Amino acid sequence: MGGRAESLKHETEPRSGADRGNDLDFAATLLGRAGDASPRKAERTRLRLLAAIAGELSAGVSRSGLTVAAVAARAGLAHGTLYRYFADLDAALAALVEEFARFVLAALSEARAGEAGSRARVRQVTLVYTRLFAANAGLMRYLVGLGGADAGFAEAYRRLNRDWYRRMAAAIARRRGLADATDGGVAAMLPTAYALGGMVDEFLSQLYLRRDPALAEFAMDADAVADLLTDLWWRGAGGKSDFRPD
Q1: 152-180: pLDDT as tens digits
Q2: What's the 3-state SS for 9-60?
Q3: Which position among 14, 39, 45, 63 has the lowest Cβ density within 10 Å, counted as fewest Cβ atoms?
Q4: CATH numeric code, 2-238
Q5: Closest by Cα among 39, 54, 62 to 93
Q6: Where are the domains of the chain?
């Protein structure tokens, strides 16, 4: 993933959108926070542990293959340190998912190109999400697998999706000119939001998780990926189609 992730970070726009560099690498962000002198030592150690777990998952380690020993070694800490901050590995994973959910929402919320609800705004959010997905492919593989899990840490990921889809549904309701874009309109547009969001996640999974050879060249161009997904999202959100069957 390294070369591909780096190629997706070419310079196209200011920090506000297209080129966020390591800002979109979750493990690197956690390590940066851990290296900051402002948090208390205990918080810095906790962040090092979370960064180590994120690093293991990003390196392709499965949940079943994840061990406390490997996490401690990557973090440069004693084996038992994790248990001073978390009850067990599952508790640490729950904290990681919560941190990542906040990280994703913050990154998407900072996409401010164009007016709210405009195509330019949708395109920038999509570009940021594409880059974020690619930069954290290993972690995204783990999170996508949480869809049907019963564990507590899976709920944080599902909550992230629910919150984001409600925001999408409100935007779709406004785009369609529904009179009630806060309650009834949002509820009516939730299925559309879930369908469009699922389309985006599935396509990015094809590009960066399953790495379909037929899409390898296309996957290298984050701008082209964002353009395609924005076009499909915009048409779906508008409730209109230019397609005319024979």
Answers
A1: 566 777 787 888 888 888 888 888 876 55
A2: CCCCCCCCCCCCHHHHCHHHHHHHHHCCCCCCHHHHHHHHHHHHHHHHHHCC
A3: 14
A4: 1.10.357.10
A5: 54
A6: 2-238
Give residue 4's pLDDT.
Answer: 37
Within 8 A by CB and 6+ apart from 205, the residues are 140, 144
Q: Rounded to two decimals, what is the model's pTM?
A: 0.81
CB 66 within 8 Å of CB 52: no
Q: How many angstroms from the chain centroid is the CA of residue 51?
A: 16
Over residues 144-153, the pLDDT tens digits come to 776 555 555 6
How many C-beta neighbours within 10 Å does residue 12 have? 11
Chain centre distance of CA 230: 17
Q: What is the full DSSP assignment across 90-155?
A: HHHHHHHHHHHHHHHHHHHHT---SSTTSHHHHHHHHHHHHHHHHHTHHHHHHHHTTTT--SHHHH
